[in-house]
Amino acid sequence: MSLARSAVVSFVRRSDDVRLERVFGSSRGMRFLFRRMERAYVPAEAAGTAGDIVFALPGPADADRVWVVHVDASAAHAHPGQPGLDVDALLTVKVGVPDLVRIAVGQEDAGRALLDGRLDLIGDSAVAERLGPMFGRPRTF
Fold first, then answer.
1. H or E element: which one contains 9?
2. How do beta strands 51-58 and 91-95 pair?
3. How confident is the model over 69-118, as pLDDT tens digits?
4. Secondary structure (3-state) at 120
5. Which residue, 113, 105, 100, 134, is CA-closest to 12?
6. In 3D, which of 129, 25, 130 has the Cα closest to residue 67?
7. Are strands 76-80 and 91-95 parallel, antiparallel or unpaired?
8. Whether 37 contacts 31, CB under 8 Å
9. What are the φ and ψ backbone dihedral angles of 123, each rounded to 5 degrees?
10. Is 86 exposed, middle or buried (0-12, 13-18, 19+ CB in 10 A)?
């Protein structure tokens, strides 16, 4: 594990939901998180998947923050999106920022978050099953 990744994992481990929301829920934090996802993308795990994966992240006053990750055979590209405009997405992931961060660093199991109702997946179940491995996480089911 790189020194930078180790520092992020340690920071997440020491942080409560309020702190994670404040740091990673900011514009700068969102850019950091989704740029890391771009770099972690493993095209071979995508199994030919091409299209948009939308992340709807509840924010202050119940306003969703939306990020779109476009994946194809060679790369992933992330950019801010608009609520409700990404109806052609392969998959929409609805999750709070603290849970997304914990899942991303391996401190939370996506399956557990799904069962607990903290994660909602809408769309292609085959893409949902590959989501973790596509972004460098081990398979969970």
1. helix 3-13
2. parallel
3. 999 999 999 999 987 665 689 999 999 999 999 998 889 988 899 999 99
4. strand
5. 105
6. 25
7. unpaired
8. no
9. 130, -145
10. middle
Question: Mapping DSSP to helix (H, G, I), strand (E, B) and coil, where does residue 53 land?
Answer: strand
Q: Tell me what the mean pLDDT of segment 14-41 comes to.
A: 93
3-state secondary structure of 126: helix
How far apart are alpha carbons 95 and 21 in whole angstroms? 12
- Which amino acid makes up residue 68? V
Pair 112, 105: CB distance under 8 Å: no
Paired strand residues for 122: 92
pLDDT in tens, 28-37: 999 999 999 9
Spell 10-40 as b/e; 16+ CB within 10 A means b: eebeebeeeebbebbbeeebbeebbebbeee
